[in-house]
Specification:
Elements lengths: L1 H26 L10 E4 L10 E2 L2 E4 L5 E4 L2 E3 L10 E4 L10 E2 L2 E4 L5 E3 L3 E2 L9 E4 L10 E2 L2 E4 L5 E3 L3 E2 L11 E4 L10 E2 L2 E4 L5 E3 L3 E2 L31 H8 L2 H20 L1
Antiparallel strand pairs: 1-3, 2-5, 3-4, 6-8, 7-10, 8-9, 11-13, 12-15, 13-14, 16-18, 17-20, 18-19
Amino acid sequence: MKKCFAILLSVLLVLCLMLPFAALAADADPETCPHEHVIDVPAVEGTCTHSGKTAGTKCADCGTILSGVEDTGLVPTNHANYKTEVRDAVDATCAHEGYSGDVYCLACGEPISMGTTIPKSTTHTGQVEVRGKVDATCTDAGYSGDKYCGECNALLVTGHVTPINEKHHGDYELEVRDAKEPTCGEHGYSGDTYCTGCGHLMTQGCDLLPTGEHVDADGDKICDNCGKAIPEPGSEKKSFGDIVKAFFKPANFFRTLWGTIKAFFSALFG
């Protein structure tokens, strides 16, 4: 019983608290509101994208505009705190004037301010180019080349003559001199290599051993080089050292060894 009484008392208390608000809500109807509570409405400044409003008054209870608060329209020149963007800017160089660029409002897309011309740069902005360079060779002096600005083509530094370079032989051909072919009994020489431009000795030749082979172009059995008679094949006298060398050649040695083994087993087993 006590519990039901407590619930009923709580409901009544809530209803009592809601009565003033219900009356206020009934008075908030614009058609019945007496507009007893009037408040000021501040003016709103127009921008390039939003219309402005004049100052006025309104009812605090129902929100009805009582005076002023009229639409003043857009203000194209008022870009407020909208973000801006610089367009068509061009850097000045030593050859061409530049442009600071036009400032545009990103909200409405209209220009805010126009740019100005930037004078040519007093310093050279292009890459340095070397022109007219000539490498020195073993016979001719060279030239270091003149340095120019690649943007305005102004001469920056004049080049200078470079001395003859004995180690640079350019496109000159090389010539082999004093070469000699070896013969059956005489040494030969590979020849010395010279630069045809300056005559400088590039590489020195080396000695070539005799070939040991006779040449008999006319078939008279006399060597055309040394003038000695050419022995018949197999008639040359061989020294003991030559015989030993021939025996211990890999092919001869194993062939002789195999023949000896075969003869031994044939004699042993009949």
